[in-house]
Amino acid sequence: xxxxxxxxxxxxxxxxxxxxxxxxxxxxxxxxxxxxxxxxxxxxxxxxxxxxxxxxxxxxxxxxxxxxxxxxxxxxxxxxxxxxxxxxxxxxxxxxxxxxxxxxxxxxxxxxxxxxxxxxxxxxxxxxxxxxxxxxxxxxxxxxxxxxxxxxxxxxxxxxxxxxxxxxxxxxxxxxxxxxxxxxxxxxxxxxxxxxxxxxxxxxxxxxxxxxxxxxxxxxxxxxxxxxxxxxxxxxxxxxxxxxxxxxxxxxxxxxxxxxx
Length: 261
Prior knowledge:
Shape: globular
Largest sheet: 6 strands, mixed
Binding site for Mg(2+): 7, 34, 151, 153, 251-252
Structural class: alpha+beta
Domain Endonuclease/exonuclease/phosphatase: 4-252
Protein name: Exodeoxyribonuclease III
CATH superfamily: Endonuclease/exonuclease/phosphatase
CATH topology: Deoxyribonuclease I, Chain A
Strand order of the largest sheet: 3-4-2-1-14-13
Cofactor: Mg(2+); Mn(2+)
CATH class: Alpha Beta
Site (Transition state stabilizer): 153
Number of strands: 14
Number of domains: 1
């Protein structure tokens, strides 16, 4: 069972590239972030044509998450973590959706960026991570096989970035962000990519600016965290780096883990 995450950075703009990736790599489950469309604008029919069923949680122009499953309908468990955005009266943003697919709990998230730091957006990021950790603790307690995956907007360690100095001021690398992520792992979750690439140097994001892709100036912020039940079944994990280099690509690349049936 292959489970993947892909920050698509606008599903309508990237739809041809997304369908290419689905057809060429055929993940069992594909979790998307930054779909950037309201619910009624999600192109579910496009995925049905190639055998994928979908559920989604959209928002106009920003955020948005979706879960696609090959040949089966994801059974939605919940959406949202019950935490309002950083602006007063804003309400909850479309950043989390959870479903069951083939006996695996799939928790797809788009964690707040947190910039500028310090400030209310960074405070919101940390509060969101605390709420996520609480949800993950519930999953661990239930002993359900689970994968928590998506764009975490956290660079976990110095070996996960091309230049520590260049990214040092960013919210993605602040000690508070890293500590919150480390506490999740400490609760009993396995970072699939880090486990199989202990030396680091694996990137999942390259900015559109300053020739970052051409110079390989990237960093790792897209993660797959496995519950103990799933970690025992991991056989492979990787990054589909080449898709970042295609025409009109997302600034992220797909990341995946393969579990034994």
